[in-house]
Amino acid sequence: RQIAFLVDEFLAREAIADMTEVNGKMVFLDSKKLKFEKNGIVLIREDCNTNTRFNPDAKPELCGTWELSALADSTFVFDSLFATRKPSLMFTHDDDLFSGHTGCNSMRGYYRAREEEFRFREPIAMTKMMCEGEGEKTYLILLKKVNRFLIDDASLTFFKDDEVLMRFSKK
């Protein structure tokens, strides 16, 4: 799900489009799209196909969930690094926000994707569960090196310059 705070004109117009007048009061047609929080009203989006904030550099093909399918570091056997759960990343294009899983801990943060350039912006927030093995450590080291990406069909590849670091499959 994508979430955006109703703080700008575009979002306000979109929210109003989902309203109708009933007995002299404005009512939302689908209350499942709204969530009331301490900081204000939140409009909940169920898809990646609509920008809720205008972003001319948005990469809609990046939006969605990706599961790690290969690491360039052949020091370890991939399946032994992530025996319990494979790492995954979920991208939204509204606010350049990502979330994911390291195979052990949950994480979230911001990214920057412009043309072929890609960066995970520091800091990345993570849960702090104790993790066995070298999987999470290896994965995070490679994520910090990423500076370029390529999407080809249902495959997302991250690079450090021309060196392939890791590959993900679209879920």
In a few lines, what is going on in this structure?
The protein is mainly β and 171 residues long. It contains three helices and 13 strands.
Principal-axes shape call: globular
* Strand proportion: over 45%
Secondary structure category: mainly beta
**SSE string, helix = H, strand = E?**
EHEEEEEHEEEEHEEE
Largest sheet properties: 8 strands, antiparallel
- Report the mean per-residue pLDDT as an integer: 77
Q: What is the helical fraction, as a range of percent?
A: 10-25%
Catalogue the unreliable spans. Answer: 1-14, 49-56
C-alpha end-to-end distance: 15 Å
What is the overall number of helices?
A: 3
Widest sheet, order of strands: 10-9-8-7-6-13-12-11
Number of strands: 13
Q: Return Rg in Å.
A: 19 Å
Say what oligomer this is.
Answer: single chain
Describe it for me?
With 171 residues, this protein is mainly beta. It is 14% helix and 45% strand. It contains three helices and 13 strands. The protein has helices at residues 9-17, 78-81, 135-145; strands at 2-5, 19-22, 25-28, 34-37, 40-45, 64-71, 88-91, 97-101, 106-114, 117-126, 148-152, 155-160, 163-170. The strands form three sheets. Strands 10-9-8-7-6-13-12-11 form an eight-stranded antiparallel sheet, covered by helices on one side. The radius of gyration is 19 Å and the shape is globular.
